[in-house]
Structures are given as C-alpha cells and as structure tokens.
C-alpha cells in the first residue's frame, strides 16, 4: 500500500478578494506521479506554489510526512521545483549548472560538529554524473547551455533539481515552451525519469494529453475546487460531470432521462447502457465519446442525422453530424460527405450517464467546435428531418 507523503487540508487562497482555492483537500502518495489539470485560473499553480512554500495560504494546512510545514521556508523543504522558464546559468556549462546547488550545501564537519564544511569535490562530481546519466545527458558535461535544444535544457533543469535528492519534484507546465514533437518525446522521458529516481512528481498542466500520458493520478480542478480525482482511465471513461467530460478528451454531452437502471432515453429513444443507481426518470447528462459511435446505413441507425462538416485528421475523419440542431462529433475511419444522411449506433459500454451538475448544458455541442468548422458550417438539416 502506498504511503501518504503530502496532505493539503482545507486550503483557502485569494488574490484581490477573488477566491482562488476554496477549501481544497488532497493527499499525495510517496513515489506517485500526480498531475493537477485544469484551465488557466483554476488554482493549480497556486496549489503547487503552496506545496513548494513560495506562497502561504490564507487558511488551511500543508502536511509533509505528517508534519505541518506551513512556516517552513522553501529551501528547508525536501521539495524542489522546475518552472516553465528553466533559469539556467548561461555562463556555466551543463556540469556546473547541475552542481550549483551541491556547491551551496554545507554539512557538519566530522572533526568539529559545530563547524560546517562543503561537500567533497569527488562526491559532487559523482552525483552530477549520475544525474546526467539519469536524464540521458551523459557526455554533455562541458556543453554550454545555450548550445542545447529546448528538451536538453529542460533535462538540465530537472537534473539540477534532482541532484539535491528531494523527496518531491514540482513541475509547473515545464513543456509549454517546447514544440509539439518535443513535448511528446519529453512526456515519455519525464515518466521514465520519475520511475528511475523513484520520488514523487507533482505536475501542473492544462494539457489533457500530458496528463493522460504521464500520470498515475489526475486531479481535475476548476475555479479553486477539485472536480474529480482518479487514474487516467477513470477520468476518461468515468467522468463525474460535464466539465470533466469536456476537459478530458472530446465528448458529446446530451440531455437524457434515466428511465431505469441500464436504460437511458435521448431524443425520445431508449438506449441500453451499463449505468445504474439513479432514480427512475431522473434527468441526467449522457456522455458519448466520438470514437464510440459507429456510422451505419440510415435504416439500421438508432438515430439518423445530417453530416455538416468533415475534416481529415490523418488517421481518422472528424465528422460533425446534426441531430435536430445539436451537433455531435464522430471520429471514424469511414468517410461520409457533407450533406449525407447517416445512421449511428452506440454500444451500451459507449454510453456513460452522469448526474446533473452546475456544468450541465454548457458543453458537448459542436456547433462551434473550431473556427475551421464554423467557416465550413453551411449545410442546414432539413426541418424536422432528423429522427429522435
């Protein structure tokens, strides 16, 4: 069983009388890769800064290994941070950048405990070289940092943070400055480094792909509150509300009625599903992922609609289909032209039913999926033509 390392208890924070964290409670396990995920302004970076000691909460407690550390300054916490701006020293080579923190350290002199002494040079060298190997930068010791790629600079920053052997590494959107391919490569690299060094990583991002790729646990936040905590699979397949469903992946979110356990109604039609525990005829939100929808001939469809937009994405088509004015997104390898009438089928395990929430009705309609789709959206469904 994983050991709890950090607990955030009833944290509140405000800036200019605007509440940023609203009684936030969270625990983080030792050796866990946990991601705080949410839109700008949701409180994720503020949470990270409170854990690191750079910001003090208005109220609430930060516990580290069971000990309250609210008043412990950052440099005395067993926590290091890598920011989006790596802040490397351009006048120092890679080795000296990584060694910088070690050269600042002092430890009791064995011959005189009252006296502090520097770390031995051989120990510094050994620890730096070990860390450079861990981040795949062996042989780069004498390279200038301004001669490195963005991904290499990031790994230098990570090595500099890890060489001090913290128990926790905080990462505040560290991939934001990298191009798409390098970001994807670094997602895999960061997970590998975390598993190799065996410490807790707390990662902040607004990028759902980063969160799904790297995390053991994802914490989805909005407006200073936690919306859901779970594994990437749980968050994607079993979102708690319309906000989570929309923020993690693409989702069609439709008003429905739970007729009874394992039977939901949409557009006047009843669909078998796997969900239960709702009241009979309870209004619900129904989530259907675009990849879980099969296109079939009209006569075989559970619903029929009109294709309004088609975008080729390489391995798939993104197709927008109009069902009585509500636009669905379907991701498929089968091409259907604009204006075509199609049927769709959804298996029971492709339907996820959620309780109504304050986010109901705000997401899931792809009428304005993107500017590109807006410009293409010129085909109107025939009045009364879509079956329900």
Please provide a written account of the structure.
By secondary structure, the chain is α+β, with helices and mostly antiparallel strands. The chain folds into two domains: 231 residues, P-loop containing nucleotide triphosphate hydrolases (Rossmann fold), CATH 3.40.50; 139 residues, OB fold (Dihydrolipoamide Acetyltransferase, E2P) (Beta Barrel). The chain is 23% helix and 36% strand. It has nine helices and 22 strands. The strands form five sheets. Strands 6-9-10-3-11-12 form a six-stranded mixed sheet, sandwiched between helices. The protein has a five-stranded antiparallel sheet with strand order 15-14-13-16-22. Strands 17-21-18-19-20 form a five-stranded antiparallel sheet, with no helix packed on it. β18 and β19 form a beta hairpin. α2 runs parallel beside α4 and α3 packs across α4. The chain is elongated.
Quickly count the helices.
Answer: 9
Read across the widest sheet, the strand sequence of neighbours is 6-9-10-3-11-12
CATH superfamily of the largest domain: P-loop containing nucleotide triphosphate hydrolases
Structural class: alpha+beta
Second rung of CATH, namely the architecture of the largest domain: 3-Layer(aba) Sandwich
Distance from first to last alpha carbon: 49 Å
Low-confidence stretches: 370-385
**Largest sheet report:** 6 strands, mixed
The name of the CATH topology of the largest domain is Rossmann fold
Kindly provide the radius of gyration, computed on alpha-carbon positions and rounded to a whole number of angstroms. Answer: 26 Å
User: Residue-averaged pLDDT, rounded?
Assistant: 91
Beta strands, count: 22
Tertiary shape: elongated
Give the fraction of residues assigned to helices.
10-25%
């Amino acid at each position: 069983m994983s050991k709890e390392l950090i607990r955030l208890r009833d944290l509140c924070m405000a800036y200019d009388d605007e509440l940023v964290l609203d009684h936030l409670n969270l625990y983080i396990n030792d050796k866990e890769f946990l991601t705080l995920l949410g839109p700008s302004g949701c409180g994720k970076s503020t949470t990270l800064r409170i854990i690191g000691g750079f910001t003090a909460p208005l109220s609430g407690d930060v516990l580290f290994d069971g000990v309250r550390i609210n008043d412990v300054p950052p440099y005395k916490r067993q926590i290091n941070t890598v920011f989006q701006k790596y802040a490397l020293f351009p006048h120092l080579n890679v080795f000296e950048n990584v060694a910088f923190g070690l050269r600042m350290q002092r430890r009791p002199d064995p011959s005189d405990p009252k006296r502090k002494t520097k770390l031995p040079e051989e120990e510094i060298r050994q620890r730096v070289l070990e860390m450079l190997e861990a981040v795949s930068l062996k042989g780069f010791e004498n390279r200038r940092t301004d001669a490195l790629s963005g991904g290499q600079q990031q790994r230098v920053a990570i090595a500099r943070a890890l060489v001090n052997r913290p128990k926790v590494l905080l990462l505040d959107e560290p991939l934001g400055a990298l191009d798409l391919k390098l970001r994807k490569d670094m997602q895999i690299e960061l997970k590998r480094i975390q598993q190799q060094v065996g410490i807790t990583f707390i990662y902040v991002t607004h990028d759902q792909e980063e969160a799904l790729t790297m995390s053991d646990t994802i914490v989805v936040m909005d407006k200073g509150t936690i919306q859901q905590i779970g594994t990437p699979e749980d968050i994607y397949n079993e979102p708690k509300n319309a906000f989570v469903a929309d923020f993690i992946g693409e989702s069609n979110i439709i008003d429905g009625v739970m007729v009874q356990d394992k039977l939901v109604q949409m557009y006047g039609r009843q669909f078998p599903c796997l969900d239960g525990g709702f009241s009979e005829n309870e209004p619900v939100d129904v989530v259907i992922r675009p990849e879980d929808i099969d296109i079939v001939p009209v006569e075989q469809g559970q619903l029929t609609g009109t294709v309004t937009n088609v975008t080729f994405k390489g391995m798939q088509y993104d197709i927008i289909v109009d069902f009585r004015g509500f636009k669905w997104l379907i991701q498929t390898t089968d091409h259907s032209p604009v204006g075509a009438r199609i049927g769709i089928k959804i298996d029971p395990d492709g339907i996820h039913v959620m309780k109504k929430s304050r986010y109901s009705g705000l997401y899931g309609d792809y009428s304005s999926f993107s500017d590109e789709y807006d410009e293409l959206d010129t085909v109107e469904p025939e009045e009364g033509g879509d079956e329900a």
